[in-house]
C-alpha cells in the first residue's frame, strides 16, 4: 500500500560537537505519529501502540558562526516512497528557504549557505513536502520542522557602564558595601556555561573586594583615612564559562572616593602668637589673626574661636572669619600705653560639628596664648570732662567770664595746649576764649528772651602739633533777669450796655484780663493789676485783682449813653513778681453798646443809632427815588449829545498836523547825527501812544502794534519813515484822502534827494518811482502820477 507509505527524514550532523545521548533524546521528542500501527517497546518493557508516520524526523541543528569553505549540511529529508528513481521532488519553504537554507530536490539534503548568528536569530521554521516531479502533485501533506542555531561562546561579557563612580565614608568598617557593578553576556544562558559570569577584582587590593556572583564591591581594610589617600581606582573583571579557562571576559573601572568625617581635631601650628596695637587705635580695629589647622573639610573642618582667659578679656575680642577659618583679634576698648603696655590672652579653637562616633578621638579643640604689646602714639589732648555746662546772666557786660574748659596732653611729653572756639557753632561771635588757660568770656550782652541756651564747641590742640586736637561741647545757659514788664496777654476790648441811672449794677465783670511776661517764671507771675494812682478813684470803672494772675474790670455806675460818650479808654497798671519788680500801663477800650432786654448786644455804632432815631423808612425811600431820577436825566443828556454831528475837522492849536520848524544852521546830511533831533519830526502828542482822528468817526478802536514805533530819540530817518508808512497802511480809521506832511528839514548830501513831490512833475528827472507801488494803497495816487512811462503807454 503505497499511499500508506510515509517519508522518513534522517538527520545528518557534520562536524557538530554534541553528546549522542542528548541528540537521541532530542530526536525522540520530535517524531510525528502516523496512522499505521506498529509496536515499540516503552519503559519497563511496556508495549506501546503507535500509528504509522508519513514523515520521520527530529529538530535540525546547525552550529553558529561556521566559517568553513563548504556549505554546512543541516540534515536530510527522505520519504519511504522514494525508490531512488528520481520521480520524487523535495520542496523546502518557510523562513530562510532559498536564501539561507537550500535543499537538493533529488536527495533531500538541506545545506546552510550563510554563516548564522544565534544572537541575531535563534531558530528558523521551515515546511517540507514531497511532490511528483512531473506533475508537481503532492505525494504527502506538507510538514513543519525547526532548524535551531546552536550557540557557541562567541560574546564576551559587557558592563552596563564603562566607568563607575562611588563614595564611601572614610574609616568605614570592613565589608561596607560601596557599589554594585553588573555585566551581561549575549550568549544563550540555557545552553552550557557561555553566559555564566563570575566577577573578580584586578586592581584595588587590598583596599576593596568584590563578590564573585553579585558584583558588589566592599571595603577590605579598616580605618582608611581620607587625609592619607582620598581616591582609589579599582578594576573589576567579569568572565563567562563560570570563570574557567577559555572563557571570555570584560572589565570596567570604578573610581571610589573616601568622603570626609570629623575624625581630626583642630590644632594650632604654634603655641604663642605675638601681636601689637597702637594706643591710638579705635575700638573695632583689627589687632591680628590666629588660625588652627583642621585637615577635615566642609562642615567637619569648621572652627570657632573664643577667648577663655587672660588679663585683656575686657579690652579685646575675637571673631571667626568663616571664609579663611581664622580667628580675628579686635580691639574692644581703647588701650593706654601710659597705663599698661602689654596684655595676654588665651584663645581656644573648637570644631563646630562633632561626630559622636569619633568622640573618643577628642577633645576636638585646642588653645594658644596671644600676647599683645601696646605701642605708644602721639595722642590728641584730652578734656577733663566729656562736656561742659556754664551759666551767665543776661545783659551781662562784655568780657564777663562764663566758665573754663581744661584739657591736657596724655603723652609723657605733656605738650602745652592751645584753645579755640569752633566758629561754625558761634556764628554771632557771642564768646571768646583765652587760648592759654581756656577761660570763656562774653563779647556782647546776651538776651535770654531771644536765646536761653547757647551751644558752642571748643578745640584743644597741641602747640607743637596742631593736627593733634580734641573737641568738646560747651552748653551755656543764659540766666534770666527781670528786664521785661508784663503786658496784656491779648488785645482786650470791653462792652457795656447803655442803661438808665435807676437800673442796678451787674456783678459780672465787663471783661476779664490776664498778662504775659517774657521773663522766666521767677521774674514773671504773680501779676498785680491796678489803676494808675491819678485815677484810682475813677467814677466809671474799677479793677479787681483775682490773685490768680487775672483781674476783672467792673462798672462803678450805670446810666451809660452812646449819645453822651460811646467809647472809654481805661489805663491799667500791671506789675510782675520779679526783683526789682517791673510794671507797665496798658489801655483797655470799653465801648457803650445798645442791648436788648436780656442784655444781648445789638449795636455799638453811635452814628447808626442817631440815624435810626431821625429818619423814617419813608424818608429813606424818597432819597433813593431822587437819586434814581438824577441818574436817568444824566443818561438822557449823554445820549442826545452823542446824536449831534460834530465837525469833520476840529481846529485846535494842539492838533495842528503841519508844523514848520525853522533851523538857522545847515544840517550835515545823513552822516550828521547831532545837528537835529528826529523827535521834532514827530507829533509830540503821539510819542507815547496812538492819536485818534477827529475828522471821522472810527468804526472800531485801532491799537498800534508794539515794536513798529521807533524810539523817540532815534536818529534813523529811514526807520522813522517806514514806521509811519506801516501805520498809515494799517490804520482803518484813516480818511479816504491823502494827508500831506511837510517836513522843514532837508539833509545836505543825502543820497535820497528831496522828499517833496510838489515839483517832481515839472522836472525831467530820470528817477524811478516804481517803488511807490509797494508803499500801500495810501500812495497809489502818487504811484500813478510818477510811475514809469511804460505804465502811461499801457494806460493810453
From TrEMBL:
Q: What is the lineage of its organism?
A: Eukaryota, Metazoa, Chordata, Craniata, Vertebrata
Some GO term, biological process aspect, for this entry: which one?
modulation of chemical synaptic transmission
Q: What is its main location?
A: membrane
* Coiled coil region boundaries: none
The UniProt entry's GO CC annotations, sorted and at most eight, read: adherens junction; catenin complex; cytoplasm; glutamatergic synapse; Schaffer collateral - CA1 synapse
Residues in the signal sequence: 1-22
Q: Can you name this protein? A: Cadherin 11
UniProt xrefs under SMART domains: CA (SM00112)
Per the UniProt record, which residue ranges are transmembrane? 619-640
State what this protein does.
Answer: Cadherins are calcium-dependent cell adhesion proteins.
Task: Give compartment(s).
Answer: Cell membrane
The record's keywords, sorted A to Z, are: Calcium, Cell adhesion, Cell membrane, Cleavage on pair of basic residues, Glycoprotein, Membrane, Metal-binding, Repeat, Signal, Transmembrane, Transmembrane helix
Q: Name one GO molecular function term.
A: cadherin binding
| InterPro entries linked | Cadherin, Cadherin-like_dom, Cadherin-like_sf, Cadherin_CS, Cadherin_Y-type_LIR, Catenin-bd_sf
Amino acid at each position: 500500500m503505497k499511499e500508506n507509505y510515509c517519508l522518513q527524514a534522517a538527520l545528518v550532523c557534520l562536524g557538530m560537537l554534541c553528546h549522542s545521548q542528548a541528540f537521541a533524546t532530542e530526536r525522540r521528542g520530535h517524531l510525528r505519529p502516523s496512522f499505521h500501527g506498529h509496536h515499540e517497546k516503552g519503559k519497563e518493557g511496556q508495549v506501546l501502540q503507535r500509528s504509522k508516520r508519513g514523515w520521520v524526523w527530529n529538530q535540525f541543528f546547525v552550529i553558529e558562526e561556521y566559517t568553513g569553505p563548504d556549505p554546512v549540511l543541516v540534515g536530510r529529508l527522505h520519504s519511504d516512497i522514494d525508490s531512488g528513481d528520481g520521480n520524487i521532488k523535495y520542496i523546502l519553504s518557510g523562513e530562510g528557504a532559498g536564501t539561507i537554507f537550500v535543499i537538493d530536490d533529488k536527495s533531500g539534503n538541506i545545506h546552510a549557505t550563510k554563516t548564522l548568528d544565534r544572537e541575531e536569530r535563534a531558530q528558523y521554521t521551515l515546511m517540507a513536502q514531497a511532490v511528483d516531479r512531473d506533475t508537481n502533485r503532492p505525494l504527502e501533506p506538507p510538514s513543519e520542522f525547526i532548524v535551531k542555531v546552536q550557540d557557541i561562546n562567541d560574546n564576551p561579557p559587557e558592563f552596563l557602564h564603562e566607568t563607575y563612580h562611588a563614595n564611601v565614608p572614610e574609616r568605614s568598617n570592613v565589608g561596607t558595601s560601596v557599589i554594585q557593578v553588573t555585566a551581561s553576556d549575549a550568549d544563550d544562558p540555557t545552553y552550557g556555561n557561555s553566559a555564566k559570569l563570575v566577577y573578580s577584582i584586578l586592581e584595588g587590593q587590598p583596599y576593596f573586594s568584590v563578590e564573585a556572583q553579585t558584583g558588589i564591591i566592599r571595603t577590605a581594610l579598616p580605618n582608611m583615612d581620607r587625609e592619607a589617600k582620598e581616591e582609589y581606582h579599582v578594576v573589576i573583571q567579569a568572565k563567562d564559562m563560570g570563570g574557567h579557562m577559555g572563557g571570555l571576559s570584560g572589565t570596567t573601572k570604578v573610581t571610589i572616593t573616601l568622603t570626609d568625617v570629623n575624625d581630626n581635631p583642630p590644632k594650632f601650628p604654634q603655641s604663642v602668637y605675638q601681636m601689637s596695637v597702637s594706643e591710638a587705635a579705635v575700638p573695632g580695629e583689627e589687632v591680628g589673626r590666629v588660625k588652627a589647622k583642621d585637615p577635615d573639610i566642609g562642615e567637619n573642618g569648621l572652627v570657632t574661636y573664643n577667648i577663655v582667659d587672660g588679663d585683656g578679656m575686657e579690652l579685646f575680642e575675637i571673631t571667626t572669619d568663616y571664609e579663611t577659618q581664622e580667628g580675628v583679634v579686635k580691639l574692644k576698648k581703647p588701650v593706654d600705653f601710659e597705663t599698661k603696655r602689654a596684655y595676654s590672652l588665651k584663645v581656644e579653637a573648637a570644631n563646630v560639628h562633632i561626630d559622636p562616633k569619633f568622640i573618643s578621638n577628642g577633645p576636638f579643640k585646642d588653645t594658644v596664648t596671644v600676647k599683645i604689646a601696646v605701642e605708644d602714639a602721639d595722642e590728641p589732648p584730652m578734656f577733663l570732662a566729656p562736656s561742659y555746662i556754664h551759666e551767665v546772666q543776661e545783659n551781662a557786660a562784655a568780657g564777663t567770664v562764663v566758665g573754663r574748659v581744661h584739657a591736657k596732653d596724655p603723652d609723657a611729653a605733656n605738650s602745652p595746649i592751645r584753645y579755640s572756639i569752633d566758629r561754625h557753632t558761634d556764628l554771632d561771635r557771642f564768646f571768646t576764649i583765652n587760648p592759654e588757660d581756656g577761660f570763656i568770656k562774653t563779647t556782647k550782652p546776651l538776651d535770654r528772651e531771644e536765646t536761653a541756651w547757647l551751644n558752642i564747641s571748643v578745640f584743644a590742640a597741641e602747640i607743637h602739633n596742631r593736627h593733634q586736637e580734641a573737641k568738646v561741647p560747651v552748653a551755656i545757659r543764659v540766666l534770666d533777669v527781670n528786664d521785661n514788664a508784663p503786658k496784656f496777654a491779648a488785645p482786650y476790648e470791653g462792652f457795656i450796655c447803655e442803661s438808665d441811672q435807676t437800673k442796678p449794677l451787674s456783678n459780672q465783670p465787663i471783661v476779664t484780663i490776664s498778662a504775659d511776661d517774657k521773663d522766666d517764671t521767677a521774674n514773671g507771675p504773680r501779676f498785680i493789676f491796678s489803676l494808675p494812682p491819678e485815677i484810682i478813684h475813677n467814677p466809671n470803672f474799677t479793677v479787681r485783682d483775682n490773685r490768680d494772675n487775672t483781674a476783672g474790670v467792673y462798672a462803678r455806675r450805670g446810666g451809660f449813653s452812646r449819645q453822651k460818650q460811646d467809647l472809654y479808654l481805661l489805663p491799667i497798671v500791671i506789675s510782675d513778681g520779679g526783683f526789682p519788680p517791673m510794671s507797665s500801663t496798658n489801655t483797655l477800650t470799653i465801648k457803650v453798646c445798645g442791648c436788648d432786654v436780656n442784655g444781648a448786644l445789638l449795636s455799638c455804632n453811635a452814628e447808626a443809632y442817631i440815624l435810626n432815631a431821625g429818619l423814617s423808612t419813608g424818608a429813606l425811600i424818597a432819597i433813593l427815588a431822587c437819586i434814581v431820577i438824577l441818574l436817568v436825566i444824566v443818561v438822557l443828556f449823554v445820549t442826545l449829545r452823542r446824536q449831534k454831528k460834530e465837525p469833520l475837522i476840529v481846529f485846535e492849536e494842539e492838533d495842528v498836523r503841519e508844523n514848520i520848524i525853522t533851523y538857522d544852521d545847515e544840517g550835515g546830511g545823513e552822516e550828521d547825527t547831532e545837528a537835529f533831533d528826529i523827535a521834532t519830526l514827530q507829533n509830540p502828542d503821539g510819542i507815547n501812544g496812538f492819536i485818534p482822528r477827529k475828522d471821522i468817526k472810527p468804526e472800531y478802536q485801532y491799537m498800534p502794534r508794539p515794536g513798529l514805533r521807533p524810539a523817540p530819540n532815534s536818529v534813523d530817518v529811514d526807520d522813522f519813515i517806514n514806521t509811519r508808512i506801516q501805520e498809515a497802511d494799517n490804520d482803518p480809521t484813516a480818511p479816504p484822502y491823502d494827508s500831506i506832511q511837510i517836513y522843514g528839514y532837508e539833509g545836505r548830501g543825502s543820497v535820497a534827494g528831496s522828499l517833496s513831490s510838489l515839483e517832481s512833475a515839472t522836472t525831467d528827472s530820470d528817477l524811478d518811482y516804481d517803488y511807490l507801488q509797494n508803499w500801500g494803497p495810501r500812495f497809489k495816487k502818487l504811484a500813478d502820477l510818477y510811475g514809469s512811462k511804460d505804465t502811461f503807454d499801457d494806460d493810453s
